[in-house]
Amino acid sequence: MRIVVQEQPFDYGAEVEAFAAGRTDMGALVSFAGVVRDTDDALAVMEIEHYPGMTERALTKIAQEAATRWSLGDVLVIHRFGRLAPGEKIMMV
Question: Which residue blocks in 1-93 are alpha helix, DSSP H?
């Protein structure tokens, strides 16, 4: 299980490839990426703040509950903070 809260952008494809590398014990790889959206062309940027430590603990708890509930082989969560513009990736699971 890997939980990351970071300011810098991430490469979605590279993260998925690294996550799956060498894994032959799983029959499916399911992922989701969230993107900052602007539905009415009014958003220039959004600012996301977080409490270091608390955010990671909360995400870890959610991921652990999901892994138990659905017998997941592994979990990766990346969530960004800071200034993000429409179209930028904000998170992936």
Answer: 12-20, 54-69
